[in-house]
Design brief:
Helices cover 26% and strands 24% of the residues. A hairpin with a 2-residue loop joins strand 13 and strand 14. Helix 5 crosses helix 12 and helix 10 crosses helix 12. The longest helix is centred in the last third of the chain and has 21 residues.
Amino acid sequence: MTQPTGIQRRSLLQGGSLALLLGSADIAWGASIVAVRVWPAAAYTRVTIESDTALKTVPIFVANPPRLAVDIEGIELNPALKELVGKVRSDDPYITGVRVGQYANKTVRLVLDLRQMVKPQVFNLLPVKTGNTQYQHRLVLDLYPSDVADPLEALIVDKLKGGTAFNAPSMTATPTPPPASRLGIHADPVGDLMTHQNRKPEIPTAEAPASAASAPITTAASVTSQPSDGERYIIVALDPGHGGEDPGAIGPRGTKEKDVVLQIARRMRERINSTTIKTKHGNLPMRAYLTRDADFFVPLNQRVEKARRVQADLFVSIHADAFMTPDARGASVFALSQGAASSAQARWMAKQENRADLVGGLNIKTQDAAVQRALLDMSTTAQINDSLKLGGEMLGQIRRIGKLHKPHVEQAGFAVLKAPDIPSVLVETAFISNPDEEARLISDSYQNELTNALMKSIERYFSRNPPLARTRNT
């Protein structure tokens, strides 16, 4: 075989999210590439190369211009494999193009040309099988932004710009940082907001004082019922389960859990951002934060950490059940258990959901993963009690629109519910493995009914349990 010199360049093809299947004939020697997938998102872009045996790689990052080269050892390039070139979406936030070529004897070099500086992670995943999802060996290339925006800061900046929970753009998993020119070189938007809140209003000069008849009458009730600059938001973290490599449960018609729950979360976001809760402390506008707003994988501990970073008042993880038989039906609500699970089903469900990191592809070599898990394993009795209150409200509303699988809140050791300071529930909206309930899950009418039910329960919960005044975390 004639060896090409250097890396062969191919023109970039425009395409959708890649799911290119390759057969064993596409590799002349060594491992067989089973599939290649690309998951672009603002939070990070992931490239996955699935093979029948583990791939040995040597990653090389070049800063100027930014690009990531990965030498894959033990394989030779076949013309069919070159079709990997250019299978990246034109709107990918991080990758502008892909090049592949025979770099050396039995070594293929894959080069990702990048739009910006990134923090790359290159790692291997062992084969895994759970439910209807099965993967062989996976080589994963994750491209994270070098500078990560603070989601709470983005909310504060939006407030400074005059945005409200009624018409401001919703926060996404990775908000765009504000331009430095708008905030100054040493901008502190949280501090600016506090200064703005504490500033006494200026008294305008007038030619003559207003008459008593025309002056508004101020009462204690009117003061507390009017939102002010110093009023806080109620922040609800919505967590659409699964995503990216992890499809979640798959229904008889092929409906993927990850897609349905993201649709429901987006509907809830719109409702939350247009809602104000009336409490004994006044009217509190609400704000939604999604742990993911696109089709990408988020590790379980990061979902909790995202909610804590925005100082969420509630955490609602949204899922759709699946069972071994199609007969199971009905919605369920789960809270965390500090001890044994409340039932065998709850224990089984927690075990299934806690496997998401294995399917989605967690890089276990990241240094802080174990530390974060330990920190988030200190849930308090108060948090669990508040979670049970919220779960009870949700069951009361959901039973008005459909069947419940269990009439009470179940408890088990769900990893995603382990925030020690945020009331957290996991809602299994229906059994996607049931053909009738799968049809309901993908219908606009049921998604709207479910959104209304969950919103009513959240409103009732906060009306009875108003959040405490928020203090600035430094």
